[in-house]
């Protein structure tokens, strides 16, 4: 069975990105027929109620983890640590947000269709045909839309490892996606928990399992070339309550070599001169040294605690990582967790076997093994056309040669501008069969012309890895709205291609393994939002000169952007 619906705008994804993209479009076009599809059973994406658990903490802070038009109520003190807070408050905030925004008698929640998985997308002359299916029934839904907003995020589709013998394993096998809604921490039948993975999510699950009284083993894959993740102290210095607030300042943003920070005397001094490069190397080395000293990886431990030491310095972000939300994290791991460094051979009845021959008693296997691209409803050819990751082998030889030449020129420019990026630590990069993302500004496919009269019917929101999604998706959504409405002037395709190639090669040089997909911007929140605002002709420096340099970026700093946007592009505010 199937049915057909026609809408003006279709949004795929009801997480942070999809919620705000829909909200801003409706702010400008309140009469628009808009719906949001999500494959999950509840709204919120990464922060939805199914995936959350009581001791799950958010990596953003109070005053930054919210949209500019609606403040999040401060959580109770017992749920706050150095201004970080339990993720359940973000879950509630997002649910309140979709209930409190109404257009034409419909709230944002009224427009969300849950447990609907998109299966295919077809470009038609007047727009798009999107075929979807209810996850719990064979019922199909087909939608026709003039505009498509893809906001499916980077953490939607679990990446599960190959586990020979899984069918004969009597215990539970869960990805971190299902950890929050499972009973592994409360079930008396689960005594031995094994966690596979080396990043922040794995560390969270290990810590929670120990606190729940389980016997815990942690496996770090020997063939994982990026090594264990960095786990950093969240403590701030001086007037800054935490490390996140420091990282959210414009001054700190300039301490990373990035084209997004602009070319001026200050960035040239820091990253292009020998003197500045030495200063920056010393700055990052001090952070790296302090983080390792606080962890004390060489301490006496239950087993192999030293294996948690990251393989490369923190500056390069070659591995995953995050800020710690528990003061006793390292002590807890060192005293209670057996750490193994090896590769999984198979699962048996109640054990996990490593290729080394070691057998680990296991009642539940928790996989913190990352995520697959969430744009699998596009065909391989569509991915090539839109600039999404696709198999290099499927590219026509002429197209492959074209990008190879562009990237070679871009790489030379990266190294000429940021000479320190020419000397990364020794790492082993796995060959990648797919291209990086090639979206202009990380939002839209490369167009045949910068002419606004050409087809502008699809955008991608939130397909980037950043330090805080809230301000990023606000700026992306505004940019996308101006783009859809033909009000945003873009350069010609040659300039777009050069920009994408430069972004790609900078990302690979700056973030090594983590930058292979070309969409990692861990420290570039300020620079990236500046780029988008400049494209729209809106103010980037939104405070007095002193605060603009030294004060953190808060959600409230963006409150006047909507009014500036509407005035700039001639939207009639009385009708909105």
Rg calc: 24 Å
Tell me about the biggest sheet?
A: 7 strands, mixed
CATH superfamily grouping of the largest domain: FAD/NAD(P)-binding domain
The chain-level structural class is alpha/beta
Overall pLDDT level: 94
CATH class of the largest domain: Alpha Beta
Shape: globular
What is the percent of helical residues? 25-40%
Distance between the termini: 38 Å
Low-confidence stretches: none
Notes on the structure:
By secondary structure, the chain is an alpha/beta fold. It has two domains: 2-157 and 374-575, FAD/NAD(P)-binding domain, CATH 3.50.50.60; 160-223 and 342-369, FAD/NAD(P)-binding domain (3-Layer(bba) Sandwich), CATH 3.50.50. Strands 1, 2, 7, 8, 9, 10 and 23 form a seven-stranded mixed sheet that branches. Strands 12-21-13-14-17 form a five-stranded parallel sheet. A three-stranded antiparallel sheet has the order 18-19-20, with no helix packed on it. Strand 1 (2-12), helix 1 and strand 2 form a beta-alpha-beta unit. Helix 7 packs across helix 8 and helix 12 (469-484) packs parallel to helix 14. It is globular and about 65 Å long. The mean pLDDT is 94.
Give a quick set of tags describing it.
single chain, 576 residues, alpha/beta, FAD/NAD(P)-binding domain, 2 domains, 7-stranded mixed β-sheet, 5-stranded parallel β-sheet, 16 helices, globular
């Amino acid at each position: 069975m199937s049915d057909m619906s026609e809408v003006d705008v279709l949004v795929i994804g009801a997480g942070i990105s999809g919620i705000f993209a829909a909200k801003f479009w409706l702010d400008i076009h309140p009469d628009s027929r808009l719906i949001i599809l999500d494959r999950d059973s509840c709204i919120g994406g990464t922060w939805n109620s199914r995936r959350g658990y009581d001791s799950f903490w958010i990596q953003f802070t109070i005053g930054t983890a919210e949209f500019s038009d609606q403040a999040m109520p401060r959580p109770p003190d017992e749920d706050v640590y150095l201004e970080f807070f339990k993720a359940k408050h973000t879950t509630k905030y997002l649910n309140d947000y979709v209930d409190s925004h109404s257009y034409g008698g419909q709230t944002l929640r009224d427009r969300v269709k849950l447990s609907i998985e998109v299966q295919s997308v077809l470009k038609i002359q007047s727009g798009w045909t999107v075929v979807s299916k209810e996850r719990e029934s064979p019922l199909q839904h087909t939608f026709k839309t003039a505009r498509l907003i893809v906001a499916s995020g980077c953490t939607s589709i679990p990446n599960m490892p190959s586990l020979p013998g899984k069918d004969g394993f009597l215990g539970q096998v869960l990805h971190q996606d299902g950890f929050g809604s499972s009973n592994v921490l409360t079930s008396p039948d689960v005594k031995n928990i094994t966690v596979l993975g080396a990043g922040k999510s794995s560390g969270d699950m290990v810590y929670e399992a120990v606190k729940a009284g389980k016997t815990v083993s942690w496996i770090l894959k020997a063939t994982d070339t990026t090594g264990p993740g960095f786990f950093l102290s969240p403590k701030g210095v001086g007037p800054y309550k935490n490390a996140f607030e420091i990282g959210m300042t414009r001054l700190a943003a300039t301490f990373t070599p990035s084209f997004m920070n602009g070319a001026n005397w200050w960035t040239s001094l820091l990253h292009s001169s020998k003197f500045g490069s030495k200063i920056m190397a010393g700055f990052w080395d001090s952070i790296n040294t302090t983080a390792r000293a606080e962890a004390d990886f060489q301490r006496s431990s239950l087993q192999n605690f030293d294996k948690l030491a990251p393989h490369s310095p923190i500056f390069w972000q070659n591995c995953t990582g995050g800020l710690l939300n528990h003061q006793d994290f390292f002590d807890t791991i060192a005293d209670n967790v057996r750490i193994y460094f090896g590769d999984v051979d198979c699962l048996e009845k109640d054990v996990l076997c490593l290729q080394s021959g070691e057998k680990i008693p296991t009642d539940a296997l928790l996989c913190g093994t990352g995520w697959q691209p969430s744009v699998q409803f596009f065909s391989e050819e569509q991915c090539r056309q839109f600039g999404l990751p696709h198999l290099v082998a499927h590219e026509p030889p002429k197209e492959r040669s074209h990008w190879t030449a562009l990237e070679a020129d871009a790489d030379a420019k990266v190294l000429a501008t940021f000479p320190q990026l020419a000397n990364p630590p020794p790492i082993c990069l796995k060959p990648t069969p797919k291209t990086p993302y090639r979206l202009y500004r990380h939002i839209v496919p490369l167009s045949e012309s910068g002419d606004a009269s050409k087809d502008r019917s699809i955008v991608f929101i939130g397909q980037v890895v950043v330090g805080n999604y809230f301000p990023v998706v606000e700026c992306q959504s505004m940019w996308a709205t101006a783009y859809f409405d033909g009000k945003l002037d873009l350069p010609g395709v040659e300039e777009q291609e050069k920009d994408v190639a430069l972004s790609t090669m900078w990302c690979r040089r700056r973030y090594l393994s983590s930058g292979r997909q070309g969409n990692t911007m861990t420290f570039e929140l300020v620079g990236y939002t500046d780029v988008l605002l400049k494209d729209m002709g809106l103010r980037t420096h939104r405070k007095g000169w002193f605060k603009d340099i030294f004060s953190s970026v808060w959600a409230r700093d963006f409150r006047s952007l909507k009014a500036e946007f509407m005035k700039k592009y001639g939207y009639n505010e009385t009708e909105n």
